[in-house]
């Protein structure tokens, strides 16, 4: 049984209780303590900066050429906070409830409540840093609504909310670099976690310019390395997004949870060719004003503008009248897949649905729509050469966000003492489905407000432990393993590129462990994945040398994705229910809605790595609901 | 379609590079420019050759990682567009295309098209922030900021730090990059307090990194994927001079 270490007290008091009793470290001792933070996205940068501000020495790692480029920049729509500035009945409790319900009752109550509670301070923090959130003409902050909720609690900065929050966190980080409290290691990739006496004491990183392997020791290690949706190859993620840091930590003993809970974002650009590398996301905020439809009849060959109003099926408005086009992502994506599979898809590959702004433009005027979404319309035009003010956008669901990740307790600490996981890299707050505009929030809250309490609380208990240096044999052993793997890749005599395997893996997972899954598809996938991994080890071909070499980087990441893919399938197979993004075709109502099984599956699955080729072992953390009642999640 | 590429290949920081010819057939007009390079790299792997190294990440125009000179233009022929958002429909069948890294003394080439842009980080470290630590912030709505001020600050804050402005400037000046940050922060009331110190430190750092003086050609604005205005350079100069005068 997993111990999540939830503090005592009423749900609204737990976090205060924790903060009131968390152990402290005096300022003179803080400067003797070193912390490694891997990843410089919102969670990593905010955590590194906040810890440095307190006086700890922080080493910050990222594979990009600058900390500012982490994929948090790509989040467009907004960040949620229960400020209730719109006086529309919002509150911390309501936000907590929406998030728990949005996650289909598969997240931990105490964590989610804390997320909603800390949302208030985040907006204050970001504004103080100079984040230019949208404002009303009176000068006060503006909000809009997002999928899955009925209040307006989303703060936004045009279609660049992630970028602007990221700039705030990056600048805070740079300020600490300037005062010498943070040292950044850009173009560095963490390749292994080093354990001493079962505790996380450092990492092995590869300098991506020179190829040199480096040892770094610390009193605690933080992984804020983002999600692994790129496992599907075609996704909304950046090309460099990977699972390697968390996967290698998993292989060293950190459990993983909710591994197969992957959100497919409903408003992405569809695939149009075999060489495509990316499915670009169009912000969900577009669903505030855009209406989603497909032709009523299957295999309609007409262009969208040729199809008259009465022959259009606004299927979200039809199926979910209360939430309509603002239905949560998992529901909107599945409904799109249902229509596309029924032959009603549009576009050259018949794999898309229409997102139509004609009504909004008629009602509000083109200028208003342009002010709200101008950059998105421009982006659409750039990629497709189509003016979406005149004809509907074509959109399609794409792999986007991983609710799963490293299992963490209330302190955001993994099952390895001293190893913390923040942001999308952990599993904690979103249950089986994440609500829009909650991911920016979670990464910021983890980094600015939670880890800066929980990490010192851990370190305070460690004060008497002997300091570990990089001469410890554990570092030499970890470095040797990595060195061997790199040599193996460079000496491989195969004939297929790492991308070839990545694309094969992605297609396999889209088909068998994607928007919907079955027992058969998952069992098939496990067999196929084992074969694919074998073929990869034998047939991969990497050209170039051991220095700057993007093919070598890819090979390591794809190798990890292949192993992760198998765990995803085990996770999806074991969970015989449908919940949130996890839709098992065997468990649905006659009209296609998910059937959750609280009696048998109201727990978090935490998987333990048992070794190459061995079946992972399942551990359970029961989910106990005290503040909310378990209900059927309906948006009708 | 088919293109004749001339691509800059360079082994290391110190080594001498040169243009190498590649013939690439089978290009679809729907491909992005980077997907075309992916395809070429895939073919190089099959031939056992080292792939062309180039920086890229989000492939949706926001991370600022990609950037190369395409036929002598930063990010290629389109305005307001990063290299990853450039599609092959902007090229003609049979065309010769020159691909080079962004070049500047302050942007050393690492390998092929990958460059070192840490000089931009150093400029931000010199003062491109508001000095607020976690926990200090007042209630967000306690400080009303006009809609227009926010929008103007946003226009400057939209910089993605790609370096196209530097690459296109004949003096390799980072004036647009630096001034965008100066503007973003000086326009907002939260950032005004530190404005004098900030602008002096950032401008000094810009010089120290080896960037040249503003060339006044306004080429940077033309090539900026976020279409950031050169008026920010004017604002930076104003605040720089004001800070110098008031300091004495």
Automatic annotation (TrEMBL), chain B:
One of its GO terms (molecular function) is electron transfer activity. Its cofactor is [2Fe-2S] cluster; [3Fe-4S] cluster. Gene3D superfamilies: 3.10.20.30, Alpha-helical ferredoxin. Residues 150-179 form the 4Fe-4S ferredoxin-type domain. PROSITE patterns: 2FE2S_FER_1, 4FE4S_FER_2. Signal peptide: none annotated. One of its GO terms (biological process) is aerobic respiration. It comes from the Bacteria. Belongs to the succinate dehydrogenase/fumarate reductase iron-sulfur protein family. PANTHER family: SUCCINATE DEHYDROGENASE, SUCCINATE DEHYDROGENASE IRON-SULFUR PROTEIN. This is Succinate dehydrogenase/fumarate reductase iron-sulfur subunit. It comes from Pedobacter changchengzhani. The lineage of its organism: Bacteria, Pseudomonadati, Bacteroidota, Sphingobacteriia, Sphingobacteriales.
């Amino acid at each position: 049984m997993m111990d999540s270490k939830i503090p005592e007290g009423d749900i609204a008091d737990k976090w205060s209780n924790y903060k009131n009793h968390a152990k402290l470290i005096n300022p003179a001792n803080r400067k003797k303590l070193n912390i490694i933070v891997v990843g410089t996205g919102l969670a990593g940068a905010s955590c590194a900066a906040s810890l440095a501000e307190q006086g700890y020495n922080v080493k910050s790692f990222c594979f990009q050429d600058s900390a500012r480029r982490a994929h948090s920049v790509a989040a467009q729509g907004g960040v949620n906070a229960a400020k209730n500035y719109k006086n529309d009945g919002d509150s911390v409790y309501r936000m907590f409830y929406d998030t728990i319900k949005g996650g289909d009752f598969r997240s931990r109550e105490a964590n989610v409540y804390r997320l909603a509670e800390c949302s208030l301070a985040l907006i204050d923090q970001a504004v103080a840093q100079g984040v230019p959130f949208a404002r009303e003409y009176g000068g006060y902050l503006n909000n809009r609504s997002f999928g899955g909720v009925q209040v307006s609690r989303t703060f936004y900065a045009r279609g660049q909310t992630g970028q602007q929050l990221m700039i705030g966190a990056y600048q805070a980080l740079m300020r600490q670099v300037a005062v010498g409290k943070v040292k950044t290691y850009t173009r560095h990739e963490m390749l292994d976690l080093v354990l001493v006496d079962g505790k996380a004491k450092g990492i092995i990183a590869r300098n991506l310019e020179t190829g040199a392997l480096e040892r770094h020791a610390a009193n605690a290690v933080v992984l804020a390395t983002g999600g692994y949706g790129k496992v599907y190859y075609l996704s909304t993620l950046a090309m460099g997004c990977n699972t390697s840091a968390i996967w290698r930590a998993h292989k060293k003993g950190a459990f993983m949870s909710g591994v197969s809970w992957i959100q497919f974002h409903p408003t992405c650009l569809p695939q149009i060719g075999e060489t495509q590398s990316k499915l670009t996301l169009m912000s969900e905020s577009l669903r505030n004003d855009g209406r989603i439809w497909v032709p009523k009849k299957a295999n309609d060959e007409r262009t969208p503008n040729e199809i008259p109003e009465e022959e259009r099926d606004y299927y979200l408005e039809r199926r979910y009248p209360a939430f309509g086009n603002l239905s949560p992502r998992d529901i909107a994506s599945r409904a799109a897949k249902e229509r596309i599979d029924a032959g009603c898809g549009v576009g050259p590959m018949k794999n898309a649905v229409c997102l139509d702004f004609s009504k909004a433009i008629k009602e509000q005027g083109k200028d208003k729509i342009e002010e709200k979404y101008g950059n998105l319309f421009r982006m659409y035009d750039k990629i497709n050469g189509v003016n979406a003010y005149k004809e509907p956008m074509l959109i399609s669901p794409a792999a986007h966000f991983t609710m799963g990740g490293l299992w963490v307790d209330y302190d955001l600490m993994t099952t390895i003492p001293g190893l913390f996981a923040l942001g999308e890299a952990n599993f904690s707050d979103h249950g089986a489905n994440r609500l829009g505009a909650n991911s920016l929030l979670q990464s910021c809250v983890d980094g600015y407000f939670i880890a800066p309490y929980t990490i010192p609380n851990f370190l305070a208990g460690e004060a008497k432990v002997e300091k570990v240096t990089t001469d410890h044999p554990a570092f030499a052993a970890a470095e040797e393993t990595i060195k061997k793997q790199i040599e193996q890749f460079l000496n491989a005599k195969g004939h297929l590129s790492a991308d070839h395997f990545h694309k094969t893996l992605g297609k396999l997972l889209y088909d068998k462990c994607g928007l919907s899954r079955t027992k058969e598809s998952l069992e098939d996938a496990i067999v196929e994945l084992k074969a694919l991994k074998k073929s990869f080890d034998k047939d991969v071909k990497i050209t170039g040398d051991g220095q700057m070499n993007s093919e070598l980087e890819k090979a390591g990441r794809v190798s990890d994705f292949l192993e992760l893919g198998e765990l995803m399938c085990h996770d999806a197979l074991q969970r015989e229910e449908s919940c949130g993004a996890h839709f098992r075709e065997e468990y649905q109502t006659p009209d296609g809605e998910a059937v959750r099984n609280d009696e048998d599956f109201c727990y978090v699955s935490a998987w333990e790595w048992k070794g190459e080729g061995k079946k992972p072992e399942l551990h359970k953390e029961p989910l106990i609901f005290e503040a909310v009642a378990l209900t059927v999640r309906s948006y009708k | 379609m088919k293109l004749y590429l001339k691509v800059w290949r360079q082994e290391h920081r110190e080594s001498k590079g040169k243009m190498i010819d590649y013939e690439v057939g089978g290009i679809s007009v729907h491909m992005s420019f980077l997907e075309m390079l992916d395809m070429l790299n895939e073919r190089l792997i099959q031939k056992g050759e080292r792939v062309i190294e180039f920086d890229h990440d989000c492939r949706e125009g926001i991370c600022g990682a990609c950037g190369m000179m395409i036929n002598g233009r930063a990010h290629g022929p389109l305005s307001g567009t990063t290299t990853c958002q450039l599609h092959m429909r902007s090229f003609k069948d049979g065309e010769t295309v020159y691909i080079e890294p962004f070049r500047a003394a302050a942007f050393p080439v690492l390998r092929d098209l990958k460059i070192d842009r840490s000089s931009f980080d150093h400029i931000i470290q010199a003062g491109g922030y508001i000095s607020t630590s976690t926990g200090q912030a007042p209630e967000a709505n306690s400080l009303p900021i006009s809609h227009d001020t926010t929008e103007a600050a946003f226009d400057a804050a939209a910089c993605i730090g790609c370096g196209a402005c530097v690459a296109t400037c004949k003096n390799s000046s980072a004036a647009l990059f630096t001034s965008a940050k100066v503007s973003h922060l000086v326009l907002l009331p939260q950032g005004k307090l530190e404005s004098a110190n900030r602008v002096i430190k950032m401008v000094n750092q810009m010089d120290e990194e080896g960037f040249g003086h503003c060339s006044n050609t306004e080429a940077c604005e033309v090539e900026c994927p976020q279409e950031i205005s050169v008026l920010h350079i004017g604002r930076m100069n104003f605040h720089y001079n004001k800070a110098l005068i008031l300091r004495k």
